[in-house]
Amino acid sequence: MAKIKVGIINVTGYAGSELARLLYRHPFAEVTSVAGRSAAGQKLGQVFPHLADMELSITAELEGRIDIAFSAMPHKASAEAVLPLLEQGVRVVDISADFRLKDPAAYPEWYQFTHPAPEALCSAVFGLPELYRKRIKKAQLVANPGCYPTSAILAMAPAIKAGIVEPDVIFDSKSGVSGSGRALSLTTHFCEAGESVSAYGLEGHRHLPEIVQELTLLNRHRPVSVTFIPHLIPMTRGILTTSYARVKKGKLVGGKDELRKLYQDFYAGEPFVRVTGAPPSTKHTYGNNMCLLHPVLDSRTNRLVVVSCLDNLVKGAAGQAIQNMNLMFGFPETAGLEALAVYP
Amino acid sequence: MAKIKVGIINVTGYAGSELARLLYRHPFAEVTSVAGRSAAGQKLGQVFPHLADMELSITAELEGRIDIAFSAMPHKASAEAVLPLLEQGVRVVDISADFRLKDPAAYPEWYQFTHPAPEALCSAVFGLPELYRKRIKKAQLVANPGCYPTSAILAMAPAIKAGIVEPDVIFDSKSGVSGSGRALSLTTHFCEAGESVSAYGLEGHRHLPEIVQELTLLNRHRPVSVTFIPHLIPMTRGILTTSYARVKKGKLVGGKDELRKLYQDFYAGEPFVRVTGAPPSTKHTYGNNMCLLHPVLDSRTNRLVVVSCLDNLVKGAAGQAIQNMNLMFGFPETAGLEALAVYP
Amino acid sequence: MAKIKVGIINVTGYAGSELARLLYRHPFAEVTSVAGRSAAGQKLGQVFPHLADMELSITAELEGRIDIAFSAMPHKASAEAVLPLLEQGVRVVDISADFRLKDPAAYPEWYQFTHPAPEALCSAVFGLPELYRKRIKKAQLVANPGCYPTSAILAMAPAIKAGIVEPDVIFDSKSGVSGSGRALSLTTHFCEAGESVSAYGLEGHRHLPEIVQELTLLNRHRPVSVTFIPHLIPMTRGILTTSYARVKKGKLVGGKDELRKLYQDFYAGEPFVRVTGAPPSTKHTYGNNMCLLHPVLDSRTNRLVVVSCLDNLVKGAAGQAIQNMNLMFGFPETAGLEALAVYP
Amino acid sequence: MAKIKVGIINVTGYAGSELARLLYRHPFAEVTSVAGRSAAGQKLGQVFPHLADMELSITAELEGRIDIAFSAMPHKASAEAVLPLLEQGVRVVDISADFRLKDPAAYPEWYQFTHPAPEALCSAVFGLPELYRKRIKKAQLVANPGCYPTSAILAMAPAIKAGIVEPDVIFDSKSGVSGSGRALSLTTHFCEAGESVSAYGLEGHRHLPEIVQELTLLNRHRPVSVTFIPHLIPMTRGILTTSYARVKKGKLVGGKDELRKLYQDFYAGEPFVRVTGAPPSTKHTYGNNMCLLHPVLDSRTNRLVVVSCLDNLVKGAAGQAIQNMNLMFGFPETAGLEALAVYP
Predict the structure, then answer these.
(1) What is the pLDDT of residues D208-242, one digit of tens each?
(2) Interchain CB contacts (distance < 8 Å): B and D
(3) 0.90 cut: is pTM over it?
(4) Chain B environment of D340 (Cβ under 8 Å)
């Protein structure tokens, strides 16, 4: 079987280069074009020595016929890059936020631009396979979820859907520095980020509306109140989100066994979600596409606490994008994503 | 003025060695005896090269006359070491948990031992100067707070005392690895702790009852419900606690200005608490005795969020212990604690 | 084709668990037995959550028929475990040092034990495929090189063999902490190893005789003088070795172009050695089997300086062991080792 | 006694802010003016929260009368800033390289600019107190040594001066990332620098001529051949240099005892150099002004190996600058520099 041809837009960021890394070994897909304006004309291996074996040259725009494009552009620019491709009939997984939110009014509010194609927001499918697998298979445009929202939504989906918690959730997230991207800033300077932890986005992080949207959809369209506080911690990869919600009176009377069963049933058969018996570490997902979930009941306060772990560049970005591609093209869902986490 | 003579019990742990480091430059106190059974007979500088200038030898027990003893022993052993000293009239700052809890029944429940001197729990003063300064001055025995509780209680004290939040608080804490001590464990192995984050103590961490006790005392003895989840992150020093509580209806109508004023007034004149205008980083407290507080109002959910930062070995342990000693002996409260944070 | 059956002795260390991780995706080999005395009876996934998908149980000894055993035991114990297997006709790759040195007298001197089977030292093949590929193919017993020696020998082999440098070499190596293993020690405590660098083995590190042996063999059995100083640096994986040797008078008159050609010719066709045009970083080998080499000529002092990088757990241990297995069984040399480095 | 007034030029870099941190507690000096063009108009505490207590505002140029200026400007710009001050009679410690090299021709070669005041190169004193204490006391202009050269020169000075080694030295240095400064670059991005080590400056690092100059002066003006290879390792502060030189025939026949005595005698009475009995770690100098030296004899190859450790921002920059100031103004040499290293 001929491999499908894949293009990556903005290969020069961390999500883009991670796509290239993972796709290099994909049995049914081949990267044939990589675009990145700042590095156009360079060999991929000059910019990323670990990708030297790929023998591709970076171009300003995607070149040649492609079956699917991944866009790893920043928001706003991504929509601009993706819309012409859609018109050409190319299938797209957009890693930016540009097609995640259903409400066009959210874009000026959260991202400071007017969405150029509000109608595309309806047809775009939110690319969380655990919730939207069927629709993803048929989608032309998949909006790949954010790294934080993936960890948050997967953590609370079973509880929200089952109606066992009050619709008022706190997500306290801890992210490695690669989530801030490859662009330079004092925040990501080794000497500033190392041996330190800080909270940010206290006025409202852009991933909040995405979390609220999806939890609300799970809650039969009844609004869910969400406080989301991200933190930057001194590591390169990984997100751990600790989620808190009060258990409704009369719910979860079966205690931790009932809780565990609820989560295991919800994710039964999922190749990339595992409900763990012991508290997980992000290290156990380093470089692979797994999301680890550990729900516990704080019986003193009758509060549900869920710890979720993933690699922000894999299940939180490039890996999930490939998982979506696999669904879109009818490949085995795990194709190219079978590598175990690199430990220690 | 002759310097007071100080003894340190269990100098071989991180809290003990930090006491020695800080006291070395204290203008009114001198370390004259350092005990540590595992290293008895060795020079202090053999075990800790950075303390080589102190020219002290480690003994099995404290030796010579001392005016004050700091105990950095583990719980249970600390009480056993401290009680005879109290009988001899020596003043003591105990860094362990052995005299922090007022309720003797808490010890079997949380620390798996029956307290050997329940009556001492009454006379011991909880060593948080911001709350108990007057009593600390006269105390013979000060129970130095835990690192997590210091960050948690200081974060929520103004709000709980003012009655502006519901008595139901979540503390999500992120700690550097030195909080786990110098004893060996797989958890603190560089390759296991590095590039990873995990939650622990999900069944109930031992610092919980201490937090509950103090917040309840601040709330006119009305119980405060607390969920406390600590996390281990890949850095050596520092704790950042993110605290969450719902604002009571009709409270904080003045918004963030009122909130900021409440915190600034509460801590006015405090030498070691600073209410910051921007989100703080633990790096800004590296090696010094400051606690940085940053309260914000999540107006979407009407929730108070407070970010607090400190160095777990200084304001969270040895520095606060010296602050207590300064109060007990009538020294300037900041004596020996004036060093700025080491940045970057 | 049926997969060969593989056993791993001492799977509970870092080399052992890395073997399991890499072999999990091997197309022609299957791990069927994993031994580890300290964890016998446990599921592999309990000890190593990232290996949970392997669904193996740890036993005290290898069980069932196996075609090849990897021993990741400490020295001395490894020989004891390996010798009975050899007698049973099982092929073995020994990751310990027990069969690397040709001279039996080296064992009492460097490893403090008398070798139990000096004759096996003759038949064992030093498992550096770039030097001994042919012999490895036929070997029953392959002595997998140490992590430091792999980086050192590959760096200097072309120059020593070509006779362009004086036979007096300095190797200054910087290693991540995983090289010290998973056993607990103060040296590998996060708080001691983090934010620090130190030299060790100043009296003579055990990897020295192995380096001397191989360089001498390359130099037509004329002795090569070697100073080897390893350093511990605050990262988990990776070794970078900087090698220094004086260029012989009249040699390398063609300068850096001649130097580069010498190295490229020497390693032409090697799947796991790459001569780089820019100084390499260990990060570019994270989790994969590549050794990156960068030779430069310090024309001011007429000294050859070679920078070599590899992942100590892969090309420095488990990956090279699998490369050896591939050769021994006639598999493609790169089978199971194709994954690109995980970056960033 | 009135404190002297100190100005800091380019306070916004790491050397500049470290000067401020250390001087804040100096008993005889007070920072009265801090300049930094990029941040002019801001409070010092806005740029550096750890310096908030200093209550200084950053100005474009130094303001008011000052007794001494520290320049932490980049090379070339520093000379331009310093020369007018010298004309006004202000004493200066220049942390840049602009007055370190005696040969004006070295500036175009190594720093790509023509030196604006070659005559000042004669009068400037190289600010290594262990070698030039007397001259520093009387100097108007002190050229503070580079961080690498401080670690290299102190390591080899006793051996070179005593003539026990061949005048051909290799310095293999490992530096924390703060040595690269606070300016943004991909090299210092957390995700690029973390979990990695690399060599750089392979074509000749700018600190080389400074090392050669000083070792040659120690060797009775006979040239010393030097290979110097710096490495970047994943930590914030600290330099460890491993130095290699061949022992001359007939020298050091007394072995390691003679070696140790040579070093101890050379540095007898030095407040900031310690010859250690065990291999030192950079951690033991974290935040303080000590240089730790550990000389060993590799008797197999008759090579001297010296390990030297220091904090690149303290003994390698700001601390040494203050040590020089203390000498220039007749203060106790250790004034303001007494803090012990922050460990762990």
Answers:
(1) 999 999 999 999 989 999 999 999 999 999 999 99
(2) 74
(3) yes
(4) 21, 24-25, 50-51, 53
